[in-house]
Write a structure and sequence with these properties.
Length: 364
Amino acid sequence: MKRLIKKALKPFLDRKNWLRQISVAALASATAWLVGDSLLHRGGLVAAIVCSLTIRISLHKSVREGFGQIVGTAIGATIALITVNLFNFGFISIATTMLLCAVIARALHLDEVASINVPVTALIVMGPGISESTAISRLISTLIGAAIAIAFSYFSHPSTPAGRTIEQIRSIGKKSARLLSDMSNGVRINYSQQEVGKWLSRARSLIDMIPSIRSQADEATSYAKWSPLAPLDEAQLLHLRATAMEHIVVQVRGISRALFDIRIEGDLPEDIRFEISTALAAASQAISSKIEYVDSEAPYVDITVADNLRVQAKLLSNRLLEHQETFSNEQMLRCMTVASNIKIISDSLDETSPALGDIEEEES
């Protein structure tokens, strides 16, 4: 019986953050309905709808979207009143309201979800029976719902935007290190075409994670700019390290593609495979060491790990040049690509890559 209960609860226990978010959203919407219905006649439903549309997994996102929701809906309701008075409630008034609300959402730089929420909320405000008094009542309900969403969003996630950035850096870093380790072991024993295809697929999955980590790092920086609870220097440092990890992932993907092409062309000499394997293992270990202190607030990093990796990349390049007569020029270029990618990884590890500096300069 205990085993059956444990099995039934496992999907929920494995998704604690998701369970927390939907629980907070449900409680926030119910609270919005209670407050809205207590303060206004039939104001609970609009407040609950707006709350459910506005609440997000973080305080920063809810504040941003809540503000856009309130401003956009206020303007949308004004437009609705004007169009209803001019054209009555019908085809033209609804089309005009939707069009202008979409333009307003775009002007407020809201994301895709909020851009939809603004015209939807405006349509709720301009529903049947609209008049000046009902429009004002629905606007106040909108304000109540958005305010409660902002308040409850603080509890939607157990960590801060900076904490979530650290979690994502560590997650993608561990997956990159594990992939490099698997590639190292595979190259050492002369990997198959099927195996290298799986490596390339895993590397592409890592690339798909880049927009998420980039968005989270941007959120942490934006949140720190207005919130006294988050140091801006720490958020900017995390943004730099998230960008560095993004660059590392791109190089890991490049390595997997080079190994894929090498295998299509043919086999490599055993000693060359051993050198590539050793360099890949060093890169894996270096990334693992990097993510151990990613949450450090120190503006410097331990350069020893990166320097050791540079040495490995240099040794690999030298060994390839010594054996360039033993395999084709095309294979030589692909192997040198692996060495070059490892060298770039080392620059990202100690955050000295010129690309990181250029990006920071453009963003400031």
